[in-house]
């Protein structure tokens, strides 16, 4: 029988997330990770596998403790339009509160790994599909209860919100400015206004 682990696996995985998130995949070595996690390299390998495996687990941990947690909180407690507004408000605050300008680990991974790594490309794409699906659920519910415009299809509005989210999280790396972020969010939310007439009414007569 193997010896029980002498550490909190979730806590040390959180430390790996912080190291990868700040420095990226390529610039982080196993030695860096072991030091950050307070483990020997042997314990790291035994518990989490190689660097690639640890990164996969770290990215999953990040997604479930950031995006998934946020969606669960807002969908369970807020009307659909309010859930979208609260989602973006938290993203703006989170982006501004990070002195290291780490941005979003998922977006960082999309830029660093997805272009040349099919496994991570699929993994990241699946998460972005989940984000888009959250927005679409909110839009569809809001269109049903009259709080969100029906001028555009729910799928198009969801994709617009996804694009705005990704833009904010990229800009968080280089221009973490409240005025900039709120200038992105305001027109996004304005497009949800239920007083916007249907698309056919927007065409010139």
UniProtKB/TrEMBL annotation:
UniProt entry tagged with the keyword Cell membrane: no
The keyword Ribosomal protein appears for this protein: no
HTH tetR-type domain ranges (all copies): 6-66
Keywords for the protein's UniProt record, in alphabetical order: DNA-binding, Transcription, Transcription regulation
Pfam families named in the record: TetR_C_13 (PF16925), TetR_N (PF00440)
Portion annotated as DNA-binding: 29-48
Gene Ontology MF terms: DNA binding
Matching InterPro entries: Homeodomain-like_sf (IPR009057), HTH_TetR (IPR001647), Tet_transcr_reg_TetR-rel_C_sf (IPR036271), TetR_C (IPR011075)
Record PANTHER family: HTH-TYPE TRANSCRIPTIONAL REGULATOR YJDC, TRANSCRIPTIONAL REGULATORY PROTEIN
Protein's recorded name: TetR/AcrR family transcriptional regulator
